[in-house]
């Protein structure tokens, strides 16, 4: 009841005309910036830090929260319409969202994403209010073996469900892990794969890798086929979901927060892991429409997008209660707190009660604004598909280059962008899925760190990787995922015989 009264005080702060305006501006800016490939919510918040220096801290963080939620939806918009995610949490939306757009159902995919963000954000924020202390205590208790097991699960899950060949999936993952090794070893300080370049000592930024593999790789692939195959005008459907669409999406919308919120609260890669796991879950649970996954299943958009939004709320649990950022946006927001002389942690709720509860209340306001503003605008975003493809992808290359250059302000970043873009082009040419490579780059360095910490704690004994109940459970799930194709081959041949016998008996 105390949390409820504090939340009501937060609403009185968030619903003032000025703060409501900042929330709306944040959602619109975040969506607009998220739509541009390569410029995600983390970069948007970072670029706006100097601009908000003169603002009241509460107003600034309300706008940052709007940018966060709006940026995630904007990233899914480009994933669906152009197959070029604006940020890493929107990667999964491209798997089925883009095929839906190519079939003339782009508006339905955008509507499923918008409502998914609303449902996931609403449930995730309610969980943030009710469960923050509990989730924070669980996050503290999770050790290095558990983190490593979760990351291995993400590697196996993404390579198991994408593409026609597991070998190609693991080859793509290996490419990502190799790129993730570039830079200084954090434990020993030794250079790895830097080729004597001081610029590469800090590693290759994830933004450059994601934009290179997706935006540049896709643009080069389209350019290579433009002369051979004339681009057709892609039809755009209506902006609302049919009854059949609602029947297929309401369960994924509700399942998403159950996966996204807990993962968002622990430092295991932000929204990337839970969105992939949500996609895997929806594919496993789907019976009537399993064959549509990868070709335009609306569940493949609804579930991961709801998961991503709930994960954003979960991210704020660790950031506010522990001062522990679990995503790039949370890290930038932590820097913003420090800019105002505020230190997130267990005492934050007592010392800055008005700011914290105003921020949490603004998340509710932001989710509503996200739906109200973006759902009617689905046809507007869909019109991006009607832009001639040469102009469209030339624009994508321009914004991708600007986004990559803005990361570090170095010309070498642009060279890296196009080298990685060529790798993305080659992967498309030889049928390697791009997503495992992205996961390898994002989670590879963290997985290596957690593995080495676990082995250090056990004096090099491999049993140190499986010395907790949670790690054992996760490895059992991994074993089931790896063994499932073999089990299906053993069990499968018996099933087709039954219809034959029924026909003979008839």
From TrEMBL:
<protein>
    <submittedName>
        <fullName>Tripartite tricarboxylate transporter TctA</fullName>
    </submittedName>
</protein>
<feature type="transmembrane region" description="Helical">
    <location>
        <begin position="390"/>
        <end position="408"/>
    </location>
</feature>
<keyword id="KW-0812">Transmembrane</keyword>
<feature type="transmembrane region" description="Helical">
    <location>
        <begin position="20"/>
        <end position="49"/>
    </location>
</feature>
<feature type="transmembrane region" description="Helical">
    <location>
        <begin position="109"/>
        <end position="132"/>
    </location>
</feature>
<feature type="domain" description="DUF112">
    <location>
        <begin position="20"/>
        <end position="439"/>
    </location>
</feature>
<dbReference type="Pfam" id="PF01970">
    <property type="entry name" value="TctA"/>
</dbReference>
<feature type="transmembrane region" description="Helical">
    <location>
        <begin position="144"/>
        <end position="162"/>
    </location>
</feature>
<keyword id="KW-1133">Transmembrane helix</keyword>
<feature type="transmembrane region" description="Helical">
    <location>
        <begin position="414"/>
        <end position="443"/>
    </location>
</feature>
<feature type="transmembrane region" description="Helical">
    <location>
        <begin position="357"/>
        <end position="378"/>
    </location>
</feature>
<feature type="transmembrane region" description="Helical">
    <location>
        <begin position="316"/>
        <end position="337"/>
    </location>
</feature>
<dbReference type="InterPro" id="IPR002823">
    <property type="entry name" value="DUF112_TM"/>
</dbReference>
<feature type="transmembrane region" description="Helical">
    <location>
        <begin position="61"/>
        <end position="82"/>
    </location>
</feature>
<feature type="transmembrane region" description="Helical">
    <location>
        <begin position="204"/>
        <end position="224"/>
    </location>
</feature>
<feature type="transmembrane region" description="Helical">
    <location>
        <begin position="464"/>
        <end position="487"/>
    </location>
</feature>
<feature type="transmembrane region" description="Helical">
    <location>
        <begin position="167"/>
        <end position="184"/>
    </location>
</feature>
<keyword id="KW-0472">Membrane</keyword>
């Amino acid at each position: 009841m105390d949390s409820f009264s504090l939340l009501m005080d937060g609403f009185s702060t968030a619903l003032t005309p000025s703060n409501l305006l900042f929330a709306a501006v944040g959602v619109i800016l975040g969506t607009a910036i998220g739509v541009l490939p390569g410029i995600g919510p983390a970069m948007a918040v970072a670029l706006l830090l100097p601009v908000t220096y003169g603002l009241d801290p509460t107003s600034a963080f309300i706008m940052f929260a709007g940018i966060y939620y709006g940026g995630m939806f904007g990233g899914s918009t480009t994933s669906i319409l152009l197959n070029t995610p604006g940020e890493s949490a929107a990667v999964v939306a491209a798997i089925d969202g883009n095929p839906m757009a190519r079939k003339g159902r782009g508006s339905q995919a955008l509507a499923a994403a918008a409502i998914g963000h609303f449902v996931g954000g609403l449930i995730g924020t309610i969980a943030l209010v009710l469960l923050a202390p509990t989730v924070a205590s669980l996050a503290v208790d999770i050790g290095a073996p558990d983190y490593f097991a979760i990351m291995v699960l993400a590697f196996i899950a993404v390579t198991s469900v994408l593409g026609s060949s597991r070998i190609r999936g693991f080859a793509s993952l290996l490419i990502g892990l190799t790129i993730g090794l570039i830079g200084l070893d954090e434990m020993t300080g030794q250079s790895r794969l830097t080729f004597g370049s001081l610029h590469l000592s800090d590693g290759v930024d994830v933004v450059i890798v994601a934009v290179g593999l997706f935006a540049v790789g896709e643009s080069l692939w389209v350019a290579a086929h433009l002369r051979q195959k004339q681009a057709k005008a892609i039809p755009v459907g209506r902006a609302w979901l049919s009854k059949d669409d609602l029947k297929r999406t309401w369960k994924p919308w509700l399942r998403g927060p159950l996966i996204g919120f807990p993962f968002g609260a622990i430092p295991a890669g932000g929204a990337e892991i839970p969105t992939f796991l949500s996609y895997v879950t929806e594919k496993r649970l789907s019976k009537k429409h399993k064959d549509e996954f990868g070709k335009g299943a609306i569940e493949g958009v609804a579930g991961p997008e709801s998961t991503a939004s709930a994960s954003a709320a979960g991210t704020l649990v660790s950031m506010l209660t522990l001062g522990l950022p679990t995503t790039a946006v949370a890290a930038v927001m932590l820097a913003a707190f420090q800019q105002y002389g505020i230190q997130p942690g267990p005492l934050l709720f007592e010392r800055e009660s008005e700011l914290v509860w105003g921020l949490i209340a603004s998340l509710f306001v932001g989710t509503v604004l996200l739906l109200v503003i973006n759902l009617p605008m689905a046809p507007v975003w869909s019109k991006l598909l009607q832009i001639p493809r040469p102009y469209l992808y030339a624009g994508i290359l321009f914004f991708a280059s600007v986004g990559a250059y803005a990361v570090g302000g170095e010309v070498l970043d642009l060279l890296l962008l196009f080298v990685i873009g060529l790798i993305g082009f080659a992967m498309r040419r030889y049928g390697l899925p791009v997503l495992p490579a992205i996961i390898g780059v994002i989670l590879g360095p963290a997985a290596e760190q957690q593995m080495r910490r676990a082995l250090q704690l056990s004096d090099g004994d491999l049993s140190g990787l499986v010395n907790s109940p949670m790690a054992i459970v996760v490895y059992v799930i991994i074993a089931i995922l790896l063994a499932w194709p073999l089990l299906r081959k053993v069990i499968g041949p018996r099933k087709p015989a039954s219809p034959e016998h029924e026909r003979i008996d008839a």
